[in-house]
Each structure stands twice: as C-alpha cells, then as structure tokens.
Design goal:
Rossmann fold, five-stranded parallel β-sheet, about 45% helix, about 15% strand
Length: about 300
C-alpha cells in the first residue's frame, strides 16, 4: 500500500518536472535515505521548482534561503530578541526549522555561514544562544551551485562537500522535452507550481523504515566496497572516497531498489548511485585534469573495472 503511494508520488513528480527523470528519482532516493543533495546547474533549469514540488508532494514545509555574502549564521539558525514586556529574551527560530530547505547558491556566502548550515545537517540540531533545539524528523537540505560563475564565490571545501549524499548535475532537457515545456508554458497548460499532497509525513517516515529493511547481501556490499577502495588505489585520483562515501552508497542503493519495487539491492542499483555519490568526494590527479578527463569518466571506468558478483 505504502509502496503504491510512493509510486504515485514519483509519477506525479515526473509530470511536474519534465526532462529530469533520473535526477528526480535520485533526489527522491536521497530524501528517503536521510541524506542531503548538492545540486549543480545553470540558471533557468528548474532547480528551485524541482525542490519545491517535492516538498509539496510530501505535504512538508518548504523554506528557501538566498545565500549572499552578507548572510549571517543567525539568519539561518535563528536568534534571541529582548522582550521589553516580559523583561526576558524570546527565541526566534530561523528558516532552517523546516522539512525541506533550499540553500540557493550556497557558494556565495562565506565559510562561517556555510558551516552553520552544514553543522545542522550533520547533527540534526541547532544551538541558539546556548540552547539546543532539535530539527524535524524529516529534514532535507538541497544546496544549489552555479557551475559557470566563480567571481565572488566561496567554494565549499572537499571535507564539507562530503556531508552531501549526492551531487546532482542538472543538464538541459532534450530537444523534444524542451519543446514540450515551451509549448505548455505558451499554452498555459504547464502543471501548477504547487503540487497536491500525495504522501503525508507519518507515511513517509513509515516508508523510510521499510527501506531500512531492504536486504543488502554481503556479495553486493563487498562489490560496493571494492568500488570505493578503487578510488583510493588508482593513480588517476589524488584523494579517494571515505568510509562515509561507502555508507552513503549503501543507503542510497537501498532506497533506489525500493523505488524499483524490490526488497533487495542488486549491483545495478549500486552502479546507478555510484557517480552521484562519489563525484564530489574525490579529487582527480593534476595530470588527468590537464588531459581534460572528468571525475564522472574516471568513476565510470572504475565501476566498469570491478567484477560484478553473480
């Protein structure tokens, strides 16, 4: 029953977000895994709409923060203000207290402000003037980056990028898909921005528990671990993936398998999540960069070189 509801949510999601079928599934897999996503794409490719629609379908609260150079940590987490009437201090919780948070252009704010968000992502709690507050049970951060503008930006260090489960790249849709979007906009038949609720939060949490019960056999686990260890042993990569990367891949593969209607993980599930789970966690060697080789190409070669269990 719950799996049917999740399938209905996915189908509805794909009707609202055209031309991004794989990224839509990966984004849903990430929130089902309890992770967070770094979303990279040029302006105008529907990143905000993709995140807002997911929050609407889940019936969750959505907040968006536009990151700027003058943004302060308290603008994210919250602050205290003096109440003249009562003679005490009132706590004002920031926009981070939500179910789905869009951190728009996270690389446009200084490291101190970035760290306030990343700490909350890791600890699932926020401290405001010495008082600790827990974040909601469903807390999902999607941080966006513009890959073509670097002036006036503060790139996320590799250690902080490691906090994200996936790094997804939003490309332009195909010609036919883009024509379809254009036609729907001109004819005013595009799906409304606010999607109807398909799942409520309690049902979503119950689905997450079912995903935790998805079987990850030892041979598939070893296959996944071999991929991660290969990133540390090849000369093409300067710094390989951490143990956290392997954990992320395992959780994401279980969520992907559940979306596919299975209660066990296959090597194909691992292959599907390998590139988005690893591309932001490794640094390629300088000589490979000079040759124009990309991280995605290297990960794809590594995955192809590891023997698939039968």
């Amino acid at each position: 029953m719950m799996r049917d509801q999740l399938t209905a949510l996915l189908n509805k999601y794909e009707t609202h977000i055209l031309g991004q079928a794989i990224n839509v599934r990966l984004l849903l897999s990430a929130i089902l895994s309890g992770g967070h996503v770094l979303l990279e794409g040029v302006p105008g490719t529907g990143k905000t709409q993709m995140v807002r629609t997911l929050a609407s379908l889940l019936g969750g609260q959505f907040n968006r923060i536009q990151f700027t150079p003058d943004l302060l940590p308290s603008d994210i987490t919250g602050s205290t203000v003096y109440n003249m009437k009562d003679g005490g201090f009132d706590t004002l919780k920031g926009p981070i207290f939500t179910n789905v948070l869009l951190a728009d252009e996270i690389n446009r704010t200084p490291a101190k402000t970035q760290a306030a968000l990343l700490e909350a992502m890791e600890e699932k709690q926020v401290t405001i003037h010495g008082e600790t507050y827990s974040l909601p049970d469903v807390f999902f951060v999607v941080a966006t980056q513009n890959p073509i503008e670097f002036e006036g930006t503060y790139p996320l260090p590799e250690a902080q990028q490691d906090r994200f489960l996936f790094k997804l790249k939003i490309d332009f849709p195909s010609f036919d898909e883009e024509v379809d979007v254009l036609k729907q906009v001109i004819e005013n038949t595009l799906a409304p921005k606010e999607a109807d609720v398909i799942l409520d939060i309690p049902t979503f949490l119950a689905i997450k528990q079912e995903i935790e019960a998805v079987t990850l056999h030892d041979d598939v686990l070893a296959y996944m671990m071999q991929i991660v260890r290969q990133t540390r042993e090849t000369e093409a990569i300067r710094f390989g993936a951490s143990t956290r990367a392997a954990i992320s891949m395992g959780r994401a593969a279980k969520a992907w398998a559940y979306l596919e209607g299975r209660d066990y993980v296959t090597p194909d599930d691992v292959k599907m999540v390998a590139i988005p789970a690893l591309r932001h966690r490794i640094q390629i060697s300088p000589h490979m960069e000079l040759e124009g080789v990309t991280v995605d190409q290297i990960v794809e070669e590594l995955v192809g070189a590891v023997t698939v269990p039968r």
